[in-house]
Amino acid sequence: MKIAVSGAAGRMGRRIVAIAHEHSDAEISGALESAGNATLGRDAGELAGIGAIGVTVTDDVAAVVSGCDVLIDFSMPEASLEHTNAAASAGKAIVVGTTGFSPAQKEEILRVGQSTRFLMAPNMSMGVNLLFVLVDRVARALGDGYDVEIVESHHRMKKDSPSGTAVKLAEVIAQALGRDLSTAGVYGRKGMVGERSPQEIGVMALRGGDIVGEHMVMFVTNGERVELIHRAHSRDALATGAVQAALWLVSRPTGVYDMQDVLGLKVEK
Length: 269
What we know:
The chain has 269 residues and is α/β, with parallel strands linked by helices. Helix content is 38%, strand content 24%. Helix 6 packs parallel to helix 7.
């Protein structure tokens, strides 16, 4: 399976290149970066630390998309929209792990994705996707009697806040509790904010050093609390999931999917 990687010079992109290259069913066919990126012209394998693989990093979206079966995209929201349009026009599958979309951008990329084989997930590790299932079950079991707080920690270079995974956790919990996240979500607190309302879903973001990614969900009531925690020790769990998603997606019919589909974790509500 020919896999191209967008954001190939980034932290995630390099690990995806390395892991896909080692996979017996995959071949790296292209590597994309933005115009003006200092790595343009470099070998994607050398950037990933696995030695030259004969794939040069380029900003030619059309050429990369035409030469692959599936594109794995870890870039920026604007670039992801461009790449999804290119994949849809060429009839290619695309896996999007980019986060930080505005509501309008997310609506647009999902609309375009419907015309091809499209998978988007804020986190592609097995553990985090199991966490999504667990928080849904816990929220439904505990109901409105418990306050819900989400705390996420990432490295100092992360651009979007809160993380896409934290946003997804909040969305899952809001749906389970029948709340509107646009009004229930509270993102950080400062000053005389008053008492915490029972309907709040708190989301706090921490940034520092080289933290790969940590997410904690707390369900708290008088006398006890339940904590669900996921810690990523490296990016390999996410990169492995992205490659697994790409290999799974290429044989699917046209449609929009997520990692719950890939991992068989989707639960009928």
